[in-house]
Amino acid sequence: MLQHVSRFIAAAALVALSGSATAAPVAAPAAAPGPLPPDVFAKSHWMELTRADYDAALAKLPENLHWEFATSPKRIQDLLNGLLLNKTLAAQARAHGLGGDAFANKPAGDAERALANAELKRIDDASRAAFDAKKAEYEARAREQYMIDRDKYRRPEQVRFSDIAVAIKGRGDAAAHQRVEEARQRLLAGADFATVAREYSDDPKVKENGGAMPLVSAKQLAPDFAKGVFALHKIGEISVPIKGPAAWHVVRLDERKPAGIQSFGEVRDAIMKDLLDRYIAQQRQLRIEAIYRDPDLQINQPAIDALVNHVDSDSLKPAASAKSAASASQPGSPDSAGRAPVSTTPSATQALPPPAGRN
Question: Are 181 and 75 found together in one domain?
Answer without folding.
Answer: no
